[in-house]
Each structure stands twice: as structure tokens, then as C-alpha cells.
Fold these 2 entries.
Entry 1:
Amino acid sequence: MDRTTKIRIEHLFFHYGRRRVLDDVCAEIPANAITAIVGPSGQGKSTLLTCLNRLCDAVAGTRVSGRVMMHFQGQWQDILAPDVPLHWLRRKVGMVFQAPNPLPMSIFKNVAFVLKLTGQHRRPDVTDRVAQALARAFLWDEVRDRLHHDARTLSGGQQQRLCIARALVLEPEILLLDEPTSSLDSQAGEVIESLLLALRQRCTLVMVSHYQDQVRRVADCVLQMEAGKLKLLRQSGSV
Amino acid sequence: MRQPPLDRFVRLVSWGSTLLLLASVATVIGFLLIKGYSSLSLKLVFGDTPPMEALLLRRPVFGGLFPAMVGTFSLVVLAITLAVPLGLAAGIYMAEYGRGRIQRALGLFFDILAGVPSIVVGLFGFSVAVFLHRHFGGRIYPCLLISALSLAFLVLPYLIRTTQNALEALPEAVRLTAPALGATRLQNICFVLLPRALPGILSGVILAIGRCAEDTAVIMLTGVVATAGLPRSLFSSYEALPFYIYYISSQYRDPEELATGYAAALILLAICAMLFAAAALIQQRLGARLHQRL
């Protein structure tokens, strides 16, 4: 397999009840790049994302078959294998949803919460890492003075960047984004776009997007989803 | 802006129903106040014992409602303390872990349990008491603990179902937030789902408190008596307000005695209100604590 490939999807089928949502999906997703998945609504784009961190397991009545290979620490691993610990996988593969979903607590705690989930309680470390994550998500300068305010007082764009910071604090190798700018105005969307371009250095990004312009601006690789089938639309020369 | 006729009609009916309900509650409380207020007095509660002496448990109260108040209070607190952990755990199982046929069968079972008349639960408690009496050298009689256990059994299905419903009603977005961040199932339940579901769970606890406080059939068969003084231990018989009300209303000798029954009902309502407030307070503090712990 190609060394710069991060995710390799092999004959992935997904059923919801009796409906086939993903139909023999095969794809390779390059490392340290932004891969956009485009296509009309209701074609299974978001479903494909949830197969990549197995969040689809949390929904009753779903069935997945095929293989999703991911390249972690020099080894290929099938993340659909039943013995993969889900919390471990989701710490490697972060996810940001379409609508910002901060928890009803302070800005600081929203990010620190994730560290506590992994058993990290030492105060100075936690404070440092929260600050780093907020900085990586272009949010630190805006919130440094009000870290202990309720996260729901932030604007929509800030909330979404907080969610990205929250996903970044565990240093995931892959970040999944489900239409991250669709609930934001264009200005807030632009900030997120430049953030994504900056994140590409250390992370593999997979993004569902509806916006053609956005895809043209940020994506290194574009996959199109239609009726449960995925095909490569464009791949820039650099990857 | 004029609403379509059907909308106005529905609005009217909704308002009417709300008013009717409020009026019924007001009528019940008002009726009790009119009938019972005149006999509400320290003498009714403490008899001839000085109130401070009685409250500090220095001297027993004869001919007052104090022992019945303490009996009802301890009974409710005990039954709820026994039932809430079990109900919560079973509700969490039903909402988060149970799947398929077993979960549906258990749901049906809990619904049947919720429909069991309290007199049957009382008979069950009584049989347990008789069984224990026979097998433990005749030292166990119907008592506070057996009543509390039977009441806990009676309210368990409400607690299970409200916990389950409160958890299941949480939107998918809330449900998936923490797992997407690497939370295990248990972490998700403890840190995100339960704090969010607390208000719903509280309504189940309040329902259960009310049910425990008012039930007469169960306690009549499992340990309540007309005169026992303050409950001495978990294994002693006790007095309780609903039983007093029942007893007075069926065997009163004069109108004054009947009026003490109404007064007892007022006191019972007050105790319930106090317990509801305590439950709400605990829920609030617990919610804040759960969020702070993170």
C-alpha cells in the first residue's frame, strides 16, 4: 500500500434496517491532506464519516461490512474489526458535527472534559493542553479572558471552533468534519476554512461539504458520493 | 391577527382543562383547610407533651399526631432510599444497555408491575413478614422495614420507566457528543446523559414520594398500627398519617374527632410538599456537582 495513504476503504457496505446506504464503497484517503466528500443530500456522506470512527455503532439497526484500514504507528489496522476498542479509536479519529454541540459547561471545561475522560487530571498539564488546543483552533485570543464563562455564550463560529479545539486536544491523527461551516455565516466559515488548512500539517482531514467554492478552496482530494457509491472526482498533484 | 376557528377552539379547550385541574386542586386543598384548619394546633400534634421535649425525643407523645408524622416521614425516606438506586440502575439498563426481545419483555413486566394494585403488594409484604416470622424464630413481625420494602417495590416501576424515558428522550446530538470524543459508554452515561436526564428523573421521584406517602393498603398489612409511639427501630411497628386518616374517618365518635382527620390530611400534604422540595433541591445540587466533577 502507498505510504502516504492514511485511510483505505475496501468494499464497505452499510445497511440501515433494510435500506442499503453505502454500496461497495472503495477509496483511498491521503495523509496530511483535506479530503472533501461531496454530493447531494441523503446519499450517505455523513454515514460514511460515522463509519470512520464507528459512531454508527451507537445507532440501533445498522449493519456494516467490508474493511476500513487505517495507518496508525506504522501499521495498518482494520478499524471495523470487532476487537477494536471504540474509545481508543475515537481518540485517534476526532469528529466535528454539523451543528456546534458544546456541553453545558464552561469553555475551559468543554475542552478539559475530554482530557478527564482519558484520566488526565493534573491541573497544570490540563491547563496547558487546553490552551494549546484552543490556540490551534484559532480561538485562544478570543476567549483567554473568559475561559470560565458558559460555552453557550459564544457565537456560532466560536462554538464550532471550540468543538474543533475539543476534538484536537487529544491530538487525533484523523479529524472528521460533517459540514462544519453549514450553520455559520460566511465570515465565520472563512475562519474555519483557514483553520482547516493550518491543521492539515499534523492531521488527516475528511470533510463532508455542500459548498462547491469551499471544496475548490480547501480540498486536496475530492470524492463524490452518489446513491451509496463513491468515486474520485479530483486529486491535486501535491498528494 | 385572527386565528383559524379550530386553533381557537383547541386553545380554549386547553385553557379550560388547565383551569379545571387547578380548580380541583384548589377545591381539595381549600376543603381540607376549611374542615381541618380549626383543629390544627400544637396540641393536635404533640398532645399534652411540651413540643420541645417531644421534638428532642425526651418525652413520648400520647394522643398527638407527632408519632404518626415521624412514622410517615421515616417510611417515605426509607422506601425512597431503597427504591431510587434500584430504579435508576434498572432505568439506565433499559435505556442504554438492554436490547431486543429481553428489553421489551422486561418493559412489559415493569408495566404489569406498575399496574399491580397496592393491596396485592401489601399482601405480598404480609406474606414475606409471615415467612420471616416462621423462619427467624418468631422475632420478626410486620414492621417499618417490611413496609418500606413493600412500598419500594410498589414505586419501583415508576422510577424505572421515568428514568428510562428521560434518558431515551435525549436527542441524538447530545447522545453522540461524548462518544465522538472518546468517552466510554459508562462515561457518557455518568457525565453527559444522567445530568441531562435529571429533571425527568426527578418527576419520577416526586411521583414515587407521593405514592409512598399516601399509600394505606400496603402499610395496613405490613406493620402500621393505631398506637405505637415513635418507631423505635426498623423492626418495630409504627404509626402513619394516612392510616390515622383512614382510621378516624371510619370510626370517629364526634365531629371534632373527624376534624382532626382533616387536619392530619393537611399535615400529610405539608410533609409531601417538604419532601418534594427536598427532592428538587437534591436534584439541583446533584446536577451542579456532576458538572463540576468534570
Entry 2:
Amino acid sequence: MLDKEGIAKRIAKEIKDGYYVNLGIGIPTLVANYIPDEVDVILQSENGLLGMGLFPFEGEEDPDTINAGKQTITRLPGSAVFDSALSFGMIRAKKVNLTILGAMEVSENGDIANWKIPGKMVKGMGGAMDLVASAENIIVAMQHVNKAGESKLLPNCTLPLTGVNCVKKIVTELAVLDVLPQGGFRLVERAPGVTVEEIKKATAGKLIIDGEVPEMVI
Amino acid sequence: MNKVVSGADEAIRDIEDGHTLMLGGFGMCGLPEKTILALVKKGVKDLTCISNNAGVDDFGIGLLLHRRQVKKMISSYVGENAEFERQLLSGELEVELIPQGTLATRCMAAGYGMPAIFTPAGIGTEVAEGKEVRNFNGKDYLMEMAFDADFAIVKAWKGDRLGNLVYRSTARNFNPVMAMAGKVTIAEVEELVEPGELDPDNIHTPGIYVHRIFKGENYEKRIEQRTVRKRNQL
């Protein structure tokens, strides 16, 4: 089973040289730490920055330089700053190659819910609705089951949707799964030490298993 | 032409109960903190505030929320603000949550003189309820109307007395598009300079959009999530 860092490490392998990547809040933010040096990527932060760098050294925090998670960050050489409308312009125009975000639920046809639990919790959708409506390559990073032990990979989402038919890949502490265009979660890899049976038990939506499922290498 | 006013109190002299305000900033970054304090002091109420977030409990728009000066918030993200979330869930505060890109682009449309935009954000979700959907090249888009705000209140790094503005780093965020969208735009700046001191090739907001400008003193510029790395880390 993977911890959060493990999920981030596995997702980092999906990032290709030359990509512009948008990382959501939470586990996706950690992915930046595991992108190999030889893979040249530029991180987009939807509050208006291309070329997001590491956290600043202690004492060098700049309140004017933050990421979409409102964390202090640095700007890399060659970075560019722009306003929020332009930021979502480049997202809508599909210039960003990969979007990685968290979710509360994903359905077997690729619907995602991640912004509201009616009557209990409202965070707001932030930029997630814009990102999932336009991005062609969306990976969800999340836990396979919620705190109550219920599967987050469902036949249909029960929570208010963020976007429909958009998630392509999911990485959880148990597995890597592709969301198939015709519907269903295809099991691609198992996390170290996790059995297919355990993944079956934790997946409420339609799980598709083609032959041997390899253990992931991270 | 001189758009300089003495300070925040003069800048907001005609903001009254029930007005619709746009407020720049992303979290607490690039927030017009001096004008917000003046609004708190003036005590205007029943405001509709269009702003990406609502500050935190004791800073930014959170101060207006605490004093119940806000009737309605139009935002994209309310996380990290316990009082906002409480007023929302209890129904005390009217809240319209909209996608962040839609929020920015509805401001942009107003500043560009366009009545509406089409965006795929929110298709198939509750955001689409009651809105016109148009299909272009096989994909559905929502029609979203340009914002109509009485005042836009923005924070810039530098400005001159003609109202030309320059922002610094990611404190730019919503400020330029909101500056363009208000019927009356108020800009507070860290440095007020003479015309000619700002490079015309690097003006972010042309002064035509700005009606009042003042220099704010002693910016607090709070940090919401202070994240750092140690010197010995990579």
C-alpha cells in the first residue's frame, strides 16, 4: 500500500518531457518533488504563474508570490506572471498538457466530484471545474476509500459533480486504474503488497481486469 | 488629469448600502487591504462582494463577513474561512459559487465591453442549472453574463496619478480584470509615482480604467500558508 508520497511518486512517472502541468492542492502538490531532473516540465499555477519553483528558503518568503494553494513559492528563471483571466484562457485553450487533482468521488464513466458535501462541507470548486472541463489529460490522486471505509470509485457519483466524463486515470494507495472511454475502471497496476482481491473489495464501480496485473514500480 | 485621492476613506465616499463591489486578490495575496478596512470602519452593509475568496476570519473580506456587512458573496473558493463556511451552511449569507475561470472571464468580459462569454466549465453540474447552453463544434458551453459591478477595488504595486497600474508577481491575479470591470474603479498602491516614471511598455492596467488612486501605508501583506525549505535541502 502506498502513502501519500508514494502516490505522488507514481504519478510523477506519468509526466513527460516538455509538458506544461497543473497540480491541484494536496497530494498533487507533492508530485512536483518527484519529477526526475531529466524531465523538463513547466508547472502552471492557476492564480497566474508559469514556471513555479520550490518553496523559498526560510526568511525569503514573498507574500506576493504564492501558488494556487496559497503557499509561498519561488519563481524559476524563465517564469511568466499573468492575470487570472489569461490563466484560465490557456487552460481553456488546452495549452496545459496534464492536470492532476484530488477527488472525493470518481465514477466509472469518468465523472468527478470534489467540491461540496451538501449540508456538511462546502469548499467551492475553485479552478477545478474549469480545469476538468477543458483538460484532455486528467489524473486523479486520491485515497481509494473514504474515512468511513466506503469506496470512492463508484458506478455513479453521489456528490455534486465537478465535471462529467473527464477523468482518464486514477492513482490511489492501492492501484493505478484507467477510466475506459466505454466506462469502467481498468486495473493497470497494483501497489506493492496489495492483492487484486483487496482492490476488488475497495472498488464499488465496475472493475475490469485483463489477465495478470503487475505490481507497480516506483 | 489627477485621480489621486487622500486615502481609502475618500476613495469609498460614495459606496453605500446595497452596492455591488468587486475586490481583487487571491487569498490574501494582492488584497486591497486598506480599502477593506475603510469599508469596515464606514459600516456600509448589504454589500454584494465579487471576490475569488473571502480572506480569513480576521483579515480581508472576512472582516466584512464578521460584521455582517455582506449580503451576498460571489466566489469560487471558500475553504480556509470557517466563518464564511458557517454563514453559508446556516443560510445567513447568500453565496453564489462559480468556477474560478468563469469568475475571471466574467470580469474580463465587462472590461472588454462584451455582454457574455461561453465556457465549458460547469457543464453537467449544478452550476449549469438555469443557464443557456450552446453547442459549438460538438461541445457544449454555458453562457455566462459579464459582471455588472458598481465599484471595483484593486491593489497594485505601483501606480501613477493618471491611474496607470503595475502589479507585482502573483499579487496580480484578479486585480487587472476587476480594474477593467467596475463602473468606478478604486486602486490602492504601494508606490504612487509621477506620470512618466512607469514604463509605457509595461503597464498592466491602462489608466483609463481607473478612477481613483491612493497610496496605502504600512501594508501588512499576510501570508496564508507559509511554506519553506531548509537551507540544506535541495
